[in-house]
């Protein structure tokens, strides 16, 4: 489906076939690409037909990597293809409890998966998108037949690969995302979210082999972010919240300090009214998802809370840089941000000014006024 969508987006089939021929797979496969429809929606259907007699059997990761390296692809294609295979190998190794190089790929090492993965790398290199977004990944439901027997959807390798990725389930009564498809997405996607503002210039469809209750297709679009969106940096965080009404305010400072020490990006307090009109405080922690358990351990052991709420947060930030500027008080760190209209604004670092004021025995406000005037002069004069 991904291969079909890439051709539908405009990647020339002749170019794909020419690049794939570098793999020296001989007559192991035949790539058939044709126009077709799913529930009235037309798109491109790509099928990799395998010659079972010519296929040499399952390949392990080192052999596949050597095959890709020997093909003479450009650095981008080789790097992307190898990354996708390594994502697959690491997932299989984790599921089976073996080393990465010991993984016997089964379907993943078969010729059709090699073609799918390398073709994905070729297509992305050809299109050269600045950023790739993907909405929640549908996994399906029911059972799927794997090399080890019947398994519940998602297959174990798919579930392992898509840890930390937004997914949906149950829209179709079959497997909707394979380990190969999951590995391609996990490797090439920059951000698993739907852009809030996007101007699509091309819309394409890659058609699947199966027929589901809904159209079995992958939709891909090429376009531009709306004005201003490119001026933001984005990241996925989680926000952990607890309500506190029976803890001494003196305990907040050491708690917040400990949360920052383990990696919290922000910690803040909000006064709230709780049940029975009791005054309370909501403590909120913004943090990377992988630090969730560390933060929860601190909240449960160093505060009086009995429970916590966790929300996914998609954060947009102005582009920023830290610069070191020389002032009459010495070197100072300055944060400079770029606004959507291209102008900038800056802010001197409070901690640095406070330290200078203390060390020089000069009032804080006088130090800040002097330093800010010097910084403005330096920035205005380039």
Summarize the helices and strands and which ones pair or pack:
Blueprint: H1 2-9, H2 13-20, E1 29-38, E2 41-50, H3 61-70, H4 75-96, H5 111-127, E3 137-138, E4 143-146, E5 149-152, H6 156-161, E6 167-168, H7 179-188, E7 198-207, E8 217-225, E9 232-244, H8 252-261, E10 266-273, E11 279-287, H9 292-302, E12 309-327, E13 330-338, E14 344-348, H10 350-360, H11 364-380
Parallel strand pairs: 3-6
Antiparallel strand pairs: 1-2, 4-5, 7-8, 9-11, 9-12, 10-11, 12-13, 13-14
Helix pairs in contact: 1-5, 3-4, 4-5, 4-7, 10-11
Please list the strands of the largest sheet in the order they lie side by side.
10-11-9-12-13-14
Q: Terminal Cα separation, in Å?
A: 51 Å
Q: Helices and strands: which structural class?
A: alpha+beta
Q: Count up the domains.
A: 3
Name the overall outline: globular
Which band does the percent of strand residues land in? 25-35%
Structure write-up:
By secondary structure, this protein is of the alpha+beta class. The chain has 3 domains: 2-226, no CATH class; 233-316, Transcriptional regulatory protein pf0864 domain like (Alpha-Beta Plaits, 2-Layer Sandwich), CATH 3.30.70; 328-380, no CATH class. The protein contains 11 helices and 14 strands. It has a 6-stranded antiparallel sheet with strand order 10-11-9-12-13-14. It has a two-stranded antiparallel ribbon with strand order 1-2. It has a two-stranded parallel ribbon with strand order 3-6. A hairpin with a 2-residue loop joins strand 12 and strand 13. Helix 4 (75-96) packs across helix 7. It is globular. The model has no long low-confidence stretch (mean pLDDT 90).
